[in-house]
Amino acid sequence: MERVIEILEDLHPEVDFETCTTLIDDEILDSFDIVTVISELSDEFDITIPPQEIIPENFNSAKALYAMVKRLED
Prior knowledge:
Layout: H1 2-11, H2 31-45, H3 56-59, H4 62-73
């Protein structure tokens, strides 16, 4: 999870990703950020994020992103 938070902090250092659960709902992450996050996670964890996983629920928090990564690693 630490690496997921680091990736997010590179984009928005002002956000507390440990507690924020509204990254999409509050428009903290925009479409360009999402593309960057997908690319970084794909490279870092050697996963492919299919289009059906690119939904707000998977991107609203660092915890949700990490859960998606773990699912895709299995």
